[in-house]
Amino acid sequence: MPLTTVTNPVKAGSRYLSGNDAAAEGAIAAGCRFYGGYPITPSSEIMEYMSREMVPRGGAFLQMEDEIASISSVVGASWSGAKAMTATSGPGLSLMQECLGYAAFTETPVVVVDVQRAGPCTGQATKVGAGDIMAVKWGSHGDYQVVALSPWSVQEMFSLTVEAFNLSERLRVPAFLLAEEATGHLRERVDLPETIEIYNRDYTPGQPVFGCAEADGIPSMPCFGAGEKLMVTGSTHDQWGFRKTEGPEFHDRLVRRLSRKVLDRKAEICRHEGYYLDDAEVVVVAYGFTARSALRAVRQARQDGMAVGLLRLITIWPFDGELISRVAQGARGFLVPEMNLGQVDGLVRSAAGDTPVKSLTQVNGSTISPASILAALGEMR
Amino acid sequence: MARSMEKYLRPEVKTTPFCPGCGHGVLMGALLRAMDQLQLDMEKTVFVSGIGCAAWIPSPNFAADTLHTLHGRAVAFASGVKAANPDLKVIVISGDGDLTSIGGNHLIHAARRNQELTVICANNMIYGMTGGQMAPTTPQGHLTATSVQGNPYRAFDLVKLVKGAGAPYVARGSVVRPYDLIGYLKKAIASPDFAFVEVLSPCPTQYGRRNKLDSPGAMYDRLGQLCRTEAGNDPACFPPEDALLLGEFND
Ligand SMILES: Cc1ncc(C[n+]2csc(CCOP(=O)(O)OP(=O)(O)O)c2C)c(N)n1
Ligand code: SF4
Ligand SMILES: [Mg+2]
What we know:
The structure holds two protein chains of two kinds.
Chain A: E1 3-7, E2 13-18, H1 19-30, E3 32-37, H2 44-53, E4 60-63, H3 67-79, E5 83-88, H4 90-105, E6 110-118, E7 124-128, H5 133-138, E8 147-149, H6 154-171, E9 174-180, H7 181-184, E10 187-192, E11 195-199, E12 231-233, H8 248-263, H9 266-269, E13 272-275, E14 282-287, H10 290-303, E15 308-313, E16 315-317, H11 321-329, E17 333-338, H12 343-351, E18 357-361, H13 370-378
Parallel strand pairs in A: 3-4, 3-5, 5-6, 6-9, 8-9, 14-15, 14-17, 17-18
Antiparallel strand pairs in A: 1-11, 2-10, 6-7, 8-16, 13-15
Chain B: H1 23-38, E1 45-49, E2 65-68, H2 74-84, E3 89-95, H3 96-102, H4 104-113, E4 118-123, H5 158-164, E5 169-174, H6 178-190, E6 195-200, H7 204-208, H8 216-226, E7 247-248
The complex binds thiamine diphosphate, iron/sulfur cluster and magnesium ion.
Magnesium ion binds next to helix 3 of chain B.
């Protein structure tokens, strides 16, 4: 069975960890056996951790010459059969984009931890931001889908890294941990489980590798050296990997399947948490570190007598617009606080129907305080 | 292609994709013979290529695992393939533009790291696939689609470049001397180090046409006359440095 329960290979129990170290441990727990990377603040601690741990655990580590090489090596390693990852931040993510499209198009499982910093450009390299929401989804050319998860705690830096691997291996898509500097560098207590569920990729010998009968199917994935004579190509291909750069039907079928295999599984993929939603008239939609401030603000507002709740998005991509639409039916307003100029805000608006959406944006390199969110809620009374 | 080499090719592949007279087809034949003489285990060999005419030498033709990557990135992909499964033989075959322009950084760093990889650069001194634009390997003064008055820059000497970056095995062969070439390819593939073979491989369509070498035959004749196995500076030579000096360049 692809889904198996294993003993957690890293130290279980109550521990005091930084977010970046927790992400590295989550990767190891998920079975990651290749790390290729290039240093960049505020993600480098993940790379340093993996440089120490990969070889003793039977894996491999390569410090590459740049982020283009990093993600390329990760895709290569994945086809050699290893669960493979890299970690980066904004500028590195930008460099990886062409190859992320390659991973999506060739259905290569890869995990990228993006510890977001204040962009655009070099921006404020050591300060927090959440400006890569759209970049992880739309950064490469053409149409494709990815998975992106947004941790709000050190605990989730661990658990969502495991989940990113599981989804990436199961769906054969690039999966992102959309972390933020604030969570990457946060130190707090975590409770790591004794056992974890991990997904090992599905391989049936002799099956087509790049297509299947279902319009949203996920083909079997072998690796190099298995005797399958694989043809992995970034050109449009048939189900065996033969280049098909002429017939319009090949491209259409492939591009649609690559989207549908993710979008048709939203119900299985998408996760969220609700706080005080039952009678909430105003709903704060938040994710990542901002959701911590939002929860505090919501609790305070409740004490102040306001019927407000929090919808915390754990899965950002695929975006669960249906969830927003459902919540919108009982709400008279949404507030979307974000450490960018309104990236998830637009997604919420497109699903909110007639329910008004208020955007609270902050791009000053620091986290949004509960007081700011409380003040914005006050304006919605 | 000789019948005896057919076992290395996918049965679905009936023809090469190259123009008549393209050197890449000759290189493909030489590589197959080198593999055959080495009795290479095709089930444990991965061929990695980038984007360009040369990148089609292994893909989809060779009956082995092939990884046809992005323009310039073949060596970086190959590094991950090899690191994650050291039991695989990993052979990169790509063009001069692919490996030394857009992919130049990956090439020199892989040579520096000295990971066990075989890198074969099919050097036609031009961007063949995209219509004959100037490459970093185009000889100074030569005509391309983006240097109609003659390339103003010097060309890379790829042997010196890769050797300077630390590659333990470096050779330059040419499709006009196929038996020597097979020897270099065999040594490179058998090497436990980073091994690099530059292969001079004419592009009659894009290069010959623009540089008064109208027929493939004329191009091969000219290349045959110019290739040398001993150092020396012949001012009449194109390109005027030692870029046509064939052999193995190891200490
Ligand atoms: C990122 C990117 N930039 C540009 C191209 C266009 N392109 C395709 S092949 C090629 C040149 C290939 O030249 P070379 O590697 O020398 O191979 P040849 O065709 O000469 O054998 C270029 C520029 C591309 N595919 N990707
Ligand atoms: S364009 Fe040049 S390199 Fe490409 S196949 Fe034709 S002759 Fe060969
Ligand atoms: Mg070329």
